[in-house]
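Schema walkthrough. Field components (list of strings):
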Amino acid sequence: MATSRRSKQRDAIKSYLMSTTAHPTAETIYGNIKKEFPNISLGTVYRNLNFLVEHGEALRISCGDGSEHFDGKTEPHNHFLCRSCGRIIDLEMDGIDHIDIIANAGFNGKIEDHVIYFRGLCGDCQKYR
Amino acid sequence: MATSRRSKQRDAIKSYLMSTTAHPTAETIYGNIKKEFPNISLGTVYRNLNFLVEHGEALRISCGDGSEHFDGKTEPHNHFLCRSCGRIIDLEMDGIDHIDIIANAGFNGKIEDHVIYFRGLCGDCQKYR
DNA sequence: ATTGTTGCAAATATTTTGCATTGTG
DNA sequence: CACAATGCAAAATATTTGCAACAAT
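Field assembly_structure (string):
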């Protein structure tokens, strides 16, 4: 079976993801890792992001703004999306897993989990309105 | 100011969207409208989909599967995403707008609404497991 | 030594856009 | 007649992939 080997590039991508709460895109990650590995290619970044997501070491966030964002925080949590600045922010909030039960009532399949994007104005953007 | 004019192509796209619950992609819509308008271009489909979404006559669904899906049902409702067949299904369920209040507690911005994708196995896929 | 990983470039896939022409109001 | 909408093709974005060289085990 396919064993995976370690690489400095992958380690760097993972550390970078764990060091930020900014939910960067592949392009942003590429720009940052390049400081340490000037020759790294975007293909390598994408390959490693896919690897990390498949191995549960990162989350892919598809919020519909054109490109995917990635999150090094893998514990289940919810996100907020600012309609003004586009920022994605982690939410600290009480659990709402009961909505899966509500959703499953009257549905003939099996609901296992959910993905939520709360939307509105972030604290910074709200100030200037 | 920019007034909008009617076009047969746009009407056809809107009727098609309202006639289905399958949440088609631009490509699928293109294929179907082509039966009636063999010369329609994909660019026109995209332009009209954007127009309809901007005017509240359709919803854009970004579920992270590579391309966007569109929904002619504009009343607020939630979606289910099957992890086996990829289908997007409308959910009939009790309201859960209280989660916005839960999410806003301890958040320094303003939560206005949310988008949810419930995930799991649809009725059909569950049968064969 | 084996084979997973990389860098690079080319290929895909999706969506947008410039422009001359057509069609609606 | 004015100008919004179209068809077409080219461009812009985002992501994946083939391959030879490199590097981890």
